[in-house]
Amino acid sequence: MWTEIAGKISEKILLVCRRNGGGIPYMTGPDGRFDDRTDKNISWWTNGFWAGSLWQIYALTGREELKAAAVAIENKLDRALTDASGMDHDSGFKWLPTAGADYALTKNPASLNRLLLAASDLAGRFNPRGSFLRAWNDRDGKNAGWAIIDCLMNLPLLYRASELTGDPRFAQIAALHAGTAARHFQRPDGSCEHIVVFDPATGERVAAPGGQGMGPGSAWSRGQAWAVYGFTLSYLHTKDSLLLDRAKKSADYFIGHIPASGLIPADFLQGADCDFEDDSAAAIAASGLLELAGAAGESRYRHAAERLLTTLAEKRCDFSPDTDNLLTRCSVSFHDARHNHALIYADYFFTEAVLKLLGKGIFIW
Ligand code: GLY
């Protein structure tokens, strides 16, 4: 089954690569075609994911046109790398699926340069009082104490920078941030906060406001998925058993809240009358659970990942050539006006996870 699904994904990505003209997609429009963030916002956090899919399918198929399109996007992102106003906590999302994948496959020195510049900028966001990497940007420092669960996924850029340079400082910062997330983000039931606010001068924890979920205390499903995958990745890089414990608790919460349909709601605490879904949470969690299964030596996590991916493949995947996206029902944020639409990172993590099941693709984290 998974070989057939991987074949369908490859066919569609090749087709879309040929017709999307080198764009950097985020969502699809009403015509089912990808939009293009190149001139809209080159610093947008999702701008690495289409290139990531292209690299994954290039690694699988060897089709040179996929590599050429991915390299073109990596080059375009240099404009983001030189714009301080757009450099933020999401550098891992932007440069691991682009420069990271490129360097892993080709040893391109320009990719190494990009990885080290992005990692240095990310390391510069570390707050030594609170031991966290600050989220987002502002002009007046009002958000200087904000940290978010998503940021765990950017830490591999720092671990990678230490491996590449032999300088442990990058990995030390990543491990300190992961430890802060382990202590402050997970609740006793295994669910997690999206945002935790620290006093940036003293490091004291001051609040946990609602973020992209339903509200304070709710369980934004993509945040739970970032926790599953992010804690697992930091465990793999540090071997700190606290992080494995947090990954398993996040995973157990996620798995315990999968509805009978197997489809993931935008927030696990939303009412039964709310139909907001998030395929991206399902795909991210599945890819993270596949790593966790190996890290924890527990096959139940692999079985849960397979169930999530089977549900996506059977109920939410659009393999037709008429549209550009694969997955169909995602939500950016619970309080957005628009729900149940395509998102480029859902497709990336679905592709990554399906290839993992086959022992194929590349590990970029
Ligand atoms: N990292 C932002 C999000 O998950 O929407």
Largest sheet: 3 strands, antiparallel
Q: Indicate the overall shape.
A: globular
Helix content: 40-55%
Order of helices and strands: HHHHHHEEEHHEEHHHHH
Whole-number count of domains: 1
> How many beta-strand runs?
5
Jot down its keywords.
52% helix, Glycosyltransferase, mainly alpha, binds glycine, two-stranded antiparallel ribbon, globular, single chain, 365 residues
Task: Summarize the entry for a quick read.
The chain has 13 helices and five strands. It is mainly alpha-helical and 365 residues long. Glycine binds at residues 45, 150, 212, 222, 332.
What is the topological layout?
Blueprint: H1 2-19, H2 49-61, H3 64-76, H4 78-81, H5 91-106, H6 109-123, E1 126-127, E2 132-133, E3 146-148, H7 155-165, H8 169-184, E4 195-198, E5 205-207, H9 221-238, H10 241-256, H11 279-296, H12 299-316, H13 344-357
Antiparallel strand pairs: 1-2, 3-4, 4-5
Bound molecules: glycine.
The site of glycine has 5 residues, from loops.
